[in-house]
Hints:
Layout: E1 21-33, E2 38-44, E3 47-53, H1 59-67, E4 73-82, E5 97-108, E6 120-121, E7 127-128, H2 132-137, H3 139-142, H4 146-168, E8 172-173, E9 190-193, E10 201-204, H5 209-217, E11 222-230, E12 242-251, H6 255-274, E13 283-286, H7 287-294, E14 308-309, H8 323-326, H9 331-336, E15 341-346, H10 355-367, E16 374-380, E17 389-391, H11 402-409, E18 416-421, H12 425-442, E19 454-458, E20 463-466, E21 471-474, E22 501-506, E23 509-516, H13 521-530, H14 535-548, E24 556-559, H15 563-570, H16 601-606, H17 614-617
Parallel strand pairs: 3-5, 8-11, 13-19
Antiparallel strand pairs: 1-2, 1-4, 2-3, 4-5, 6-7, 9-10, 11-12, 12-24, 14-15, 15-18, 16-17, 16-18, 19-22, 20-21, 22-23, 23-24
Helix pairs in contact: 4-6, 4-15, 7-12, 10-12, 13-14
Keywords: Aminoacyl-tRNA synthetase, ATP-binding, Cytoplasm, Ligase, Nucleotide-binding, Protein biosynthesis
Family: Belongs to the class-II aminoacyl-tRNA synthetase family. Type 1 subfamily.
Subcellular location: Cytoplasm
Amino acid sequence: MENTxxxxxxxxxxxxxxxxxxxxxxxxSRTRNLGGLLFIRLRDRYGxxxxxxxxxxxxxxxxxxxxxxxxxxxxVEGVVNARSDKDINADMATGEIEVEASDIQIxxxxxxxxxxxxxxxxxxxxxxxxxxxxxxxxxYLDLRREPMQHNIILRSQVAFATREYLTSKGFLEIExxxxxxxxxxxxxxxxxxxxxxxxxxxxxxxxxxxxKQLLMVSGFDKYFQIARCYRDEDxxxxxxxxxxxxxxxxxxxxxxxxxxxxxxxxxxxFKKTLNYELPAKFDRIAWEDAFDWYGSDxxxxxxxxxxxxxxxxxxxxxxxxxxxxxANAGRDIQRHKRSGLKALVVKNVADKYxxxxxxxxxxxxxxxxxxxxxxxxxxxxxSTTDTVQFEGGISKFYVGKEAEICSKLGAEKNDLILFVSDxxxxxxxxxxxxxxxxxxxxxxxxxxxxxxxxxxxxDFPYFAWNEEENHWETEHHMFTLPQKQYWDxxxxxxxxxxxxxxxxxxxxxxxxSGSMRINDPALQERIFEIVGYSRERAEKAFGFLVQAFKFGxxxxxxxxPGLDRLVMLMCHEESIHExxxxxxxxLAASPMDSCPSxxxxxxxxxxxxxxxxxxxxx
Length: 618
């Protein structure tokens, strides 16, 4: 073959190309030898083309074709032929054609694969996939799999669409440092020792928070960055040590503009990459309502089932477990004026849920510190008390009260009613909310016409009380602007203060967090004092930012959607590992290149670092 460089990709050819002489490059997906005919499925990231080696091929070409195995990297020269009608593969974009090979050259061979790159499905339709550590050890092979290629390509498209949209709105893409000063931001920092400054360390940024605020002081009123961030915290499905966020900040703005800009960006991204229409405006739910209705500040709204206040139940029977929840006891409940006795009506499932099923739901509730999960089934309903009956669970305590309960909770025949009661309103909500989430998954309650349901959670508490350390701390970060109506009473009643902050949630995940920022040094110092930051400590950690605020800082605010999490949800995956090219595993390690790993003793000496034997020290 004189020229092995491809003239077309493996996903490009169509019936209109019949008769053309082409060169393809790619990997052998599989081969079929039918005696006189040999077929090769040739794959690249653009698709698959069937190559046919027939009687007219030379003996050398037939010999090479017969030697091919999975994942050999080859070049094929040949002519595009139309397939007969009976041989057309409607499942392939190139299914109407095949390339009759006149020459084949092997670039490189392949060892036996550690796992199959081709999709293998069981009889029930589930996909057989190698375990994650094996996939990560051979990630370069895993990335050849069609699902992974789809995910990584979509990620690239989402990043490009983000840049398109924000640039069109006047935003400037500005990079901020990767080596920064270590500041307390919640998680542990990753530290980088300095060779030039012995005993001193850089920190990898948990976010560009302080720098994007400094850019606002600098006069760049619309900033964005697809920013790499680092947090030394335990990994889970939707986070890992290094991640990427779409970081945005605006000056001379307000909450409404930040929210509408973010909505517009999401609408553009989904339309451009998935051709999916999002609503013009996303739902907005106050933090208290989100917990009261759904038991979470990141509710999954693809199904409706709301929790209800069941405080009235405590007065209908002598059932002690409900008394504390209905009593509005505890600091949180006094603050929020909400009952800690919550009910969930699960429609038309009473006949499907056995005691064993309900006990499984109770274990979910107990995971979130609930004392138990009370329940009863509606076995019949009618217009009079005599025809309304409950069955099982706590039903014996409410004989004669069935009609009133059904009326107030909207329960009907064959409904299952679940209750969690606790003197702590938020605990009761969280536990029953976890049950709600599990039911949504178990019963597949998701609205098929509501594939991506966004919502804004607003009016968060600004401060939270740390019981263990006996002091106030901020719910988000210390640079969040308190809502203006609380400025005069910050110190007198921190628990009542709401922040001018907002979270964007999607399908039960927190996708973005943002806020309006403090730009007044005096107000910033008051926040430091409330959370127990001395003037000296605040100066040491954040002095450069507070100093900048003394030179005419504009009002500003922003938000930072997680790119990994966004693409994960767009791909309907459950882990961000599936949308990151080279992720770490759940132990924050890379099986492929064995990092983190020991380094040369001389490197440590250059950095003035001495390592001790951890196992021996323990």
